[in-house]
Amino acid sequence: MIYPEGTVLRYATVTRVNHWITAICFVLLTLSGLSMFHPIFFFLSALFGGGQWTRAVHPWIGIVLALSYAGLVYQFWRDNFWTPDDTAWVRKFDLILVNEEEGVPEVGQFNAGQKFVFWAMALLIPVLLFTGLVIWEVYFSAFTPLVVQRIAVLLHSLAAIAAILVWIVHVYAGIWVRGSMQAMTRGYVTPGWAWRHHRKWLRGLTGARSPGPTSRPEGVP
Ligand code: HEM
C-alpha cells in the first residue's frame, strides 16, 4: 500500500479490515437485536429475511464480532493502558469540548476517551458473548436452568444497551474530530492532524523530544 508523501501511517490495512468487520457486525447485531428486543423494532427483522432468520443469524454474527474484536484487543491493548496523563486530560475536558487543544496534556496513540471506548467494549463484548451463549436455545438450552437463562437475557439486554451508547459516543467522536475517518478508511493522517490530536504519538514516531518547561530560554513564552 502506497501512502501520499508526507503523511503518517496510523492504521495498517489489516487493522482497518479488522476494524470494519467489527463495525459491520456491530451494526447488524444492533439492528437484529433491536428487532427481537421490542415489538416496535420488529420491522427491522425484514432486513434479515423475517423473524426466524433474524433469530438464527444473530448469534453467529455475535461470534464473528467477538472474534473480530479479540483481533483489535490483540493489536491495541498495549496502547490503551491508563496513565496519569489521561487523568490530566480528562480534567481538561471543558477545553476539549470547545475544540481547544492547547493547554491540554499531549496525547499518545489514543486519548482517554478512546481508551474508555476500548475498555468498555473489552468488558461488554465478553458479557454479550457469554450471556448470548446461555440463551442460544437451539444449542445450549439444556445446559442451564430457566432462571439462569432469564438472568442471562436481562444481562444481555443491559450490556447491549450500554454497548450501543458507547458505540454512539465512538462514532460521534470519529465524525467530530475531522480527519479521524480518513485514518480508519485510508490508513494515513496528515502530520498536522497527528500534531494537533496525538502529539506524543507523533513525537514517538519522529523521535522529536518534548521541549519541556526547563528547556525554554528565560522570557520565551
Ligand atoms: C460504523 C461504526 C464505526 C465507525 C464509523 C468507527 C469509526 C472509527 C474511527 C474513525 C476510528 C479512528 C479514530 C482515531 O484514530 O482517531 C476508529 C477506531 C477504533 N474503533 Fe471504530 N468505528 C465504528 C465501529 C466500531 C465498533 C463497533 C468497535 C468495537 C466494538 C470499534 C472499535 C474501535 C477501536 C478499538 C478503535 C481504535 C481506538 C479508538 O479510536 O477508539 N469501532 N473507529
Search tags:
221 residues, mainly alpha, 2 strands, single chain, disordered C terminus, binds protoporphyrin IX containing FE, Fumarate Reductase Cytochrome B subunit
Tell me what you see in this structure.
With 221 residues, the chain is mostly helical. It has ten helices and two strands, in the order E-H-H-H-H-H-H-H-H-E-H-H. It has a domain at 11-87 and 110-172: Fumarate Reductase Cytochrome B subunit (Up-down Bundle), CATH 1.20.950. A two-stranded antiparallel ribbon has the order 1-2. Mean pLDDT is 92; it is low at 212-221. Protoporphyrin IX containing FE binds at residues 10, 19, 22-23, 26-27, 69, 72, 76, 110, 114, 117-118, 121, 167, 170-171, 174, 180-181, 183-184.
